[in-house]
Amino acid sequence: xxxxxxxxxxxxxxxxxxxxxxxxxxxxxxxxxxxxxxxxxxxxxxxxxxxxxxxxxxxxxxxxxxxxxxxxxxxxxxxxxxxxxxxxxxxxxxxxxxxxxxxxxxxxxxxxxxxxxxxxxxxxxxxxxxxxxxxxxxxxxxxxxxxxxxxxxxxxxxxxxxxxxxxxxxxxxxxxxxxxxxxxxxxxxxxxxxxxxxxxxxxxxxxxxxxxxxxxxxxxxxxxxxxxxxxxxxxxxxxxxxxxxxxxxxxxxxxxxxxxxxxxxxxxxxxxxxxxxxxxxxxxxxxxxxxxxxxxxxxxxxxxxxxxxxxxxxxxxxxxxxxxxxxxxxxxxxxxxxxxxxxxxxxxxxxxxxxxxxxxxxxxxxxxxxxxxxxxxxxxxxxxxxxxxxxxxxxxxxxxxxxxxxxxxxxxxxxxxxxxxxxxxxxxxxxxxxxxxxxxxxxxxxxxxxxxxxxxxxxxxxxxxxxxxxxxxxxxxxxxxxxxxxxxxxxxxxxxxxxxxxxxxxxxxxxxxxxxxxxxxxxxxxxxxxxxxxxxxxxxxxxxxxxxxxxxxxxxxxxxxxxxxxxxxxxxxxxxx
Length: 577
Description:
This protein is an alpha/beta fold. It has 17 helices and 20 strands. The chain is elongated and about 70 Å long.
């Protein structure tokens, strides 16, 4: 299909995979305007195009759903209706109407300070949903240098409702007929708010970031009296990709600002946290749906095209903070708990209850949602925190669980994560693993339920049975939101048994869960294997766990601990000599 529909949005049914893994029911919360970091409030502009004058070229979109979701999101945060402007462009509107919406929005904002032209204490959020286009990506590089300042790069455009077939337009006509994304971003930047967040929900939206120029020099330090300004952009996808009209991006934006993007549980959601949350979750959802990987891009701009002198942060109040704290202290079921990550390449973690009867500082812990992947382990190796380069990292599938790792390799990885994040990462305890695996065993052994696509093991009915490990999360999650607790790969445990100490574990470790090579009858019996901790095999991997409480003493000198960064290719070459 030549032009794929370009916008994402609201999931209307909470039974879908996003809701099961990370969406939230909206909770009451304090009015955000009561907080002092934006005394002039937040003003929101939503521009959306649902119908096009030439649907044979530009198919109609579901952007009305997206616009409604974003509108309701900010109204629910306590903003008055006068501060949320939603502009649905008619079929006859041209490129000037898109830019005109920004100018009309500017007239609704508080006045600029005459001393410096800045609207101090104001944040603006601008969301665009509609088709995007790039001739450079679709028909070869378009290279030109003009008044827009683009050079030797493909250019991304926002498509107005009256746009015709771009294949019949010259480069000059194309720039007149459509809106270069970088020009759109610069127009938003000219609003001169203290804080700006732009959400581009269109095909090739990542090109808008590439076409803007950034200062190459260092950022000047802020004086105590100087207000911090920020311009942040999040796109629905990469620079070279179309994005589907499946209403996922705006749903994740809403879920993120409803609390899911509060990755460090401090009660605030920063623009960086929202960008990282969307990058991770959209990637996961596109892979789960069997589409080409869709990964949002995120950038904080500092001049010259966006003349902001400091790389600050947008800050949103997290409405889920109080409900989350209540859940951690009192809730007895995992229904209100959630998934998060501590860093870009950290494994996803799920807040889950501790096994009944366990004594701990908290009734909940964070468990790895999946086994650690080859891609995640490679980040540790490249940083110098992991010394062994596993064979599984060379098969071209970073989404498969890392294998060919022994217990010491797994412990090195958890130590590196602890060092990098300041959280106490570890391997799961036997008691924890057995608690989460019991429900999976009951599901797999239920004769009335088809076993196909429930795990990777001999007799489980999957494509990978007896052949190779499956990509993580290829099968439904269990009741705790965890994947592949049983089957796929054996998992190293953090302890050996109730009677063994760490010294014994250093000699003989334990693995649990079975693998793609293990019979189904053995998998459902919650198997355990004892083997030398130095053993590496292509069906043994691991997942991580960590306590919820932050342990500042965990942070250490990572560089001294890890040593120099290295290249996997260089290491393999050295090993082959």
